Amino acid sequence: MLTWLRVERGRSVNTLNAYRLDLRAYVAWLDERSLTIAEVTEADLTGYVAHLKASGRAASSLKRSLVAVRGLHRFLATETEGVVDPAAELEMPKVPRGLPKALTEAEVERLLDAVVGGDPLARRDRVILEVLYGTGLRISELVGLSLADLDLDAGLLRAFGKGSKERIVPLGSPAIRALVAWLGPGGRPNLEPDRWARRGDAEALLLNTRGGRLSRQGAWIVVHRAGQRVGLGDRLSPHVLRHSCATHMLDHGADIRTVQELLGHASISTTQVYTLVSTDRLLSVYRAAHPRATVQP
Asked: 58 FRET partner, CA 20 to 30 A, in 10, 19, 176, 195?
C-alpha cells in the first residue's frame, strides 16, 4: 500500500514514514488479540479507536493513525476480490484549527540580526533564517534544495513540496545576498570535503560540518539556537517562520491566492487560517480603508 501511495498518490517520504509507524502499531494491536487483517470488523476498529484515545493521543495524531488504517483496509478491499472494507464507515476525529503563532515583524528583525560573523557556519545559518522567512518554505523543502534549484540572477528558486509537487518561489534581496555570501569564497566551499561521502551531497545547497547534506534536525537546531539568542525560546520553530511569512504578507495586502501559491498549499482552505486576524486589527484596517468608516453622524 505504501508503494502505491508513493507512486500513485505522490505522498512524501515523511508522510509515508509516519503511516508506516501507524500501521505497525495497528498490526501489533491486532497481534495482541490474535486477529488478522482479514478478520477485522467494524467493532474491532471501534475498539482500536478507544485504545488510541486512552493512550492520550492528540487529535491530530489520532486522525493520522486512523487515516493510515482506513487507507489500508480500503486498499485491500479494492485490490482483493470479495474483501469487505470494515473501515468504510469509520469516522475521523475533528482536529481543532488553531491560529498560527506568528512572530511580530520586530521579533523577526531581531532574529535575522542574531547571526553575526562571516565564517562558513554563520553564512549558512543566515541563509537558513532568511530563506525560511523570506519564502515560507517548509524545513524539508529547504534542506532538500540543490544548487541547480537556484536562479539568483532571476531571484527565484525551485522547491519540491508535499507529494514532490514543484513550484517556483521568488527570493527577496536579503535572501539573495545571504545566498551569494554562502556560495562564494569563505562560505560553502570551505565545508566541501575532499571526497563526497554520498551521492547527491555535492549538489546540496546546505552542508553540515562534515560536508554532507544538512538534515532537517540540523536545520531545526540552527533555528532554535538563533531563537534562544534573542529570547524567543520555545516559541520559535521553522514552521513559525513559515507562519510569519504568510501572516506578514497578508498584513501588507497580499492576495490570498498568491500566498497559497507561495506556500504550496493544495487547498486554499489551508491558507485561509492566516486570514483569521484579531478584532483590533480588523477594526483598524476597516477604519483606514472604508470611505464611510469615520463619517460623523
From this structure: 10
